[in-house]
Structure formats: structure tokens, C-alpha cells
Amino acid sequence: LSNTKVNGRYLFGGLANAAQPFDAAGVHSGDTGQFIVPVAGGVTLEASLPGGEPFTDPLGGPSVFTTLDNLETALRADNGTAVRAEIDNLINATDRVADGRQAIGHQFERISNVTSALERAELAANATLANERDTDLASAVLSLQQSETGLRMALAMASRIGELNLANFVG
């Protein structure tokens, strides 16, 4: 599971995902990088967990593989104290897996929301572009000329109002 490959890349290898991230002993040989996806205007989203997680403990605790190996050794030795300690480590590992699943779910949801927003923006832009392309050129020119005439009349009236003052009425 820790060496799962999708589309030619290992899921838990971080940014060094072309080679298997875990060897037979469970040692992580990838990096801890995360894929960062640019979405728009300098905004980015994390699209993966750090490499090695959730199989390795980012806080330096034992990996899932070390915990399972230690649990097997403790069970074979019939060492109850060690079994309890490894069960606690296994619970911590299970919590890391659950946290990782939740983090990926949140990341997927954020990326889906951004994708939906971008699709809606693209549809709106395409509708506006289509509307502009379908504009009747003759009516657009006529409307522009009418607006220009109205602007000239408004400017002429504004300049006349500026000339009106009490001295012009008296004299």
C-alpha cells in the first residue's frame, strides 16, 4: 500500500515520486515535499500529503512498519508490556492514517470548489464574449453616436452654466 502507484507516480513519495518511496524494510527513501497546485492569481492549494505520510510519523515517532515489526516481536516473546506499548503506537499510526484521509478529503473538496468556480467564470466569460460577438454592428455604431451627441450636449450645457453668474444678469 505504501508503494501505491497511480499514473506512473508513487502516491507517498513526495516530490521524488518516480521511484518506490519505501523499501522492503519500510524505510522511506522519498522526500517530504507536497504537490502545490496554482489555482488563480497567486493562490495555491496543497494537493497531497507530505511524502511518506501517513506511514511515517512527522513528529519522529516510529513508522507504521517499525510499530508492526515491534508488535510482532513482542507477541512472539509474549511480552505484555511491550505489546501494550506497540498497541498505543499502532493507535497513533491509525490516527495518522485517519487524519491523512481527512486532510486529503478537505484538499480534494477545496480543489473541487476552485474548479467549479473557475468553470462558472469561464462560462460567464464565454457568454459575455458570445454576446459581444453577436452585437449588431450598425446598432452599436448608432448607439455610440447617440451617446456621443448626448455627451456633447451635456458638456455644452455645463459650460453655459459656468458662464452664468449674478454679474451677467445685472449687467
Number of helices: 4
Helix content, binned percent:
55-70%
End-to-end C-alpha gap: 99 Å
Question: What Rg do the Cα atoms give?
Answer: 34 Å
- Structural class designation: mainly alpha
pLDDT below 50 for ≥5 consecutive residues: which ranges? Answer: none
Order of helices and strands: EEEEHHHH
What's the main sheet like?
2 strands, antiparallel
Q: Beta-strand level of the residues, as a percent range?
A: 5-15%
Based on Cα principal axes, name the global outline.
rod-shaped
The mean pLDDT is 83
Descriptors:
mainly alpha; 58% helix; two-stranded antiparallel sheet; single chain; 171 residues
Structure summarized in a few sentences:
The chain has four helices and four strands, in the order ββββαααα.
Structure write-up:
The protein has helices at residues 64-76, 80-133, 137-163, 166-170, and strands at 5-6, 9-10, 36-40, 43-46. The chain is built from 4 helices and 4 strands. The strands form 2 sheets. It has a two-stranded antiparallel ribbon. It has a two-stranded antiparallel ribbon with strand order 3-4. With 171 residues, the protein is mainly alpha-helical. The chain is 58% helix and 8% strand. The radius of gyration is 34 Å and the shape is rod-shaped.
